[in-house]
Specification:
Blueprint: H1 2-23, H2 25-45, H3 51-82, H4 85-109, H5 115-120, H6 123-146, H7 153-171, H8 176-205, E1 212-217, H9 224-236, E2 241-246, H10 251-259, E3 262-268, E4 271-276, E5 292-293, H11 296-309, E6 316-318, H12 322-340, E7 346-351, H13 354-365, E8 370-374, H14 382-386, H15 395-405, E9 410-413, E10 416-421, E11 424-427
Parallel strand pairs: 1-2, 1-7, 2-6, 7-8
Antiparallel strand pairs: 3-4, 4-5, 9-10, 10-11
Helix pairs in contact: 2-3, 2-7, 3-4, 4-6, 6-7, 6-8, 7-8, 11-15
């Protein structure tokens, strides 16, 4: 009976996973892109019944969500290995180019493409190059708009992909206006993306000394690498001070909470444990840096205590622009800092892990900020700390985490006293 019950439960779980995959906005987006691809190429190249086109369209519809995840991982790997924006973009570009080259090769071999039309844009190698550049540029533009509150990630990426698919299909068919638009868009976006990346990398290496450092991140929790990075940046860049602002609820999670895709499941050792609900998108990685989060108020307190203990209190300022962050994210925080320090040179501190790379992109999007990055090679891990690892945080942070783990109603550390309300530290009795 146990075996029968076990099989039945496994079947039910499999069906539930399948239904969640089908309901996923990413799945629907991939299906739409595949259908649009088929219709566009079939119309432009006159290959309505071509088996190669039908097969490639089905493959794209099924594989696209996984392909997007692999591209993100390639981007992150290259950034973490080399610490340069250009390397990350090449890490994303190369596998996408190889994929597009294979797709065009299959379509041309299967007779789905107009050979004269493809030749008019330089053959499949150049067509794949232009398609890849245009796709990356449009997706970058889409995510740039998302970070400023315009649209959402799925919709913006879908619009970008749709534009690229239509122009590519008609451009490779040799249609005069579409062909020129296809080539201009691809090389234009390629030059823009490469130019922005190279300029950012140049600023990171040739930055003048002096000014104010910005240090953004989750700091979940604040650990020894954060302190080491601050000390090095103050020394190497000759900074007057560093301004730290922790994330509140990360944008990805805030939107997921709003949609009912995430919830706080429980409290564990002072950490809020995030859980997905039945509404969650099966294709979205909601927890790229883990699902255990200290409340933002507590993370701010830990930063203040650690900085004071390290004797850096006079050169480090911890700020908390709750309303601005909730409305405009770190872009808005940078705006507030610029208002308070007009004309001051700004330097953006970051690591090369997933959070650091995201912050680096924000620095680049917000104008002339000089990046200062450290390759993560020291083995200190916030994930390990959240699991109970010792020796990776300063003494005062370790002390507070132990008091939170014991669910102490009052936390005392660094000569300060805090009320503990389910992991949220508030100064005073």
């Amino acid at each position: 009976m146990a075996v029968i019950g076990s099989d039945g439960e496994t079947t039910k779980l499999s069906i539930d996973r399948l239904l969640r995959y089908v309901r996923s906005p990413s799945t629907r987006m991939a299906a739409f892109a595949a259908l649009l691809s088929y219709l566009s190429y079939a119309y432009a190249h006159g290959s309505w019944t071509n088996p190669a086109l039908i097969g490639v369209s089905v493959f794209v519809g099924v594989f696209m969500p996984s392909y997007a995840k692999l591209s993100n991982k390639a981007d992150l790997w290259a950034n973490n290995q080399f610490g340069f924006v250009t390397a990350g973009r090449l890490g994303r570009f190369i596998p996408q180019y190889v994929f597009n080259l294979a797709v065009f090769g299959v379509l041309l071999w299967g007779g789905a493409l107009n050979r004269d039309g493809v030749a008019s844009v330089g053959g499949i190698a150049l067509a794949a190059l232009v398609t890849t550049l245009a796709s990356q540029g449009l997706q970058y533009l889409g995510m740039y708009l998302v970070s400023r509150g315009i649209g959402d990630a799925n919709r913006n990426v879908l619009v970008g992909l749709s534009i690229n698919i239509i122009l590519t299909s008609f451009g490779t068919a040799g249609m005069p206006i579409a062909r020129e638009a296809f080539l201009v868009m691809g090389f234009g976006f390629g030059a823009l993306l490469l130019g922005i990346g190279l300029l950012s990398d140049f600023r990171s290496q040739m930055a003048p000394k002096g000014g104010i450092g910005l240090f953004f991140g989750t700091f979940n929790p604040f650990h020894n690498t954060h302190l080491a990075l601050i000390r090095r940046a103050l020394d190497e860049r000759g900074l007057d001070k560093i301004i730290i602002h922790p994330t509140l609820v990360p944008r990805l999670h805030a939107e997921a909470f709003r949609k009912g895709e995430l919830r706080v499941g429980r409290l564990e050792r002072g950490f809020q444990i995030y859980e997905t609900t039945a509404k969650a998108d099966a294709n979205v990685d909601y927890f790229p840096t883990g699902k255990q989060f200290l409340p933002p108020e507590t993370r701010k307190v830990l930063i203040e205590l650690a900085v004071a203990e390290a004797g850096l209190g006079n050169r480090v300022e911890v700020v908390f622009f709750r309303e601005t962050y909730n409305k405009k994210g770190f872009q808005g925080v940078i705006g507030e800092i610029r208002k308070a320090h007009p004309g001051t040179r700004l330097h953006g501190l970051h690591g090369t892990d997933i959070g650091g790379v995201a912050v680096r992109q924000i620095y680049d999007e917000c104008g002339w900020i000089y990046p200062w990055r450290v390759l993560r090679r020291d083995g200190v891990s916030a994930t390990a700390i959240r699991k109970g690892a010792k020796g990776m945080t300063s003494a005062v942070v370790t002390d507070v985490l132990e008091q939170l783990s014991a669910n102490a109603p009052v936390v005392v550390a660094g000569g300060r006293r805090f009320r503990n309300d389910n992991g949220v530290l508030t100064e005073g009795d």
